[in-house]
Amino acid sequence: MDLPLAQAAMSPELEQFPETSERQPLPVVIIGNGPSAICLSYFLSGHRPYVRKGAVHPNPILQRKLQDIAGSSVVEQDLEFLSEGLEGRSHNPLAVLFDALVRPDGDLGGMAESVLTWRLEPKHLVPHLVLGKGPPGGAWHSIEGSMFTLSLGDWMELPGLHFRDWMRRRRRNLRNDRATTRDIAQYYEHYVKVLGLQQRFVCGTVVTSVKPLLAVEPLTANRKLYEIQGFHQTAAGLQSPFCIHAENVVLATGTYDSPAWLGADGEDLPYVFHKISDLETALQKQRLGPDSDPVLIVGAGLTAADAVLTARHSNVPVIHTFRRAVSDSGLVFNQLPKMMYPEYHKVHQMMTEQSLTSSGPYKGYSSLPKHRVARFSADKKCVLEDASGKRTVFNISMAFVLIGSNPNLSFLPSHGKHLALDPEQPVNSRRNPIDTNPFTYESVQEPGLYALGPLAGDSFVRFLQGGALAVTASLLKKRNVDLMD
Q1: Closest CA to 38 of 120, 122, 161, 153
Q2: pTM for the whole structure
Q3: Which of 73, 188, 293, 344 has its CA 20 to 30 A from that of 147?
């Protein structure tokens, strides 16, 4: 069953979709429309990777394996065997495998050509639907556009559209081989259009419920189905409810939706925020300036560093507090090459040299390592506590708690906790991702439910593509089994 969706519109009205039921479910529904979902849609649309003729991989063991599969699509191979023995910066073996095929010496700083070539084979198309709240690209459209990506620009590209070529046609340049977040968001949106995937994408949708069905009808008695409910925001601003059925559901929502909270008293007061966009809004509306009381920035990650840079660029005084020591090897600044990330190393230098108890060259900035927020009060006072338990009160204008974010899985029972590695704790991309089979990305707890990207522990775009390969291979194997039955 294919989907007779509108051919031109990026966000067709839901009443144009075919009716679904337990007897006629969609093969696949993907929830989320960021790079994970876009890449999977590319695979499911019939684009298949092959080993390029004459390609030589620098890893001799992998090269011998690739020689044995010449002429066959990588999707059809024993992916566990191909990935065996490979090492990389992801814990997921297929993420490392696919990255090794696309960027043979990427971790060594080389520019070796991909050993893959792509063919469009419509007979392998898997009908699917991609549901997203905003335009294709997901959370990339929510990030302040002038910021630079942590990853190299080339590492942000998806199969079939070279990022550098796309930038060149738009007369845009990379800085230290990095792109702005605005460039990345526009690239993903353009990718969906230029590669003809838009008929699969429905933007302006909010999923409110995903639940398995106990199939009772003869046609579905031997397979599990899922019911997906939600609403679609129409062009007129109306909310149109929908209910669709699918044999498989892929969770690709990312982790940007729900900022993490400290759990401190008073954290829900109106001057305490959890998104850097709120700082940008306050600056644009001139609610902050050089004469304001300091803003409090909580966190020692890159988003907190971006907030420090943004505030200081407007000469807003900053108190910057975080739990770890500046020298802690776990701090991201201690893991980044200085030449590639000069702005972040400048923040790290400020954190090191300009503590509250020592003078330094950075007027208007104070660093408070190894402190925690004890409470916020209604009169815009914040109490900070050091490692010894000593408390200090500060007058502040605003507070920005930027300590990471969690996925919004409110459409699942118990917010998806039962799917996580530790079902007693919330799903978290770093500490507690969804428990999946490493070679199919299918949930261990819920057959037919898949997780991609940060939900499966792959936070970088370069690694999430291996997950798309795994899901595609798994779905095609299921379809072949169904055809044989």
Answers
A1: 161
A2: 0.83
A3: 293
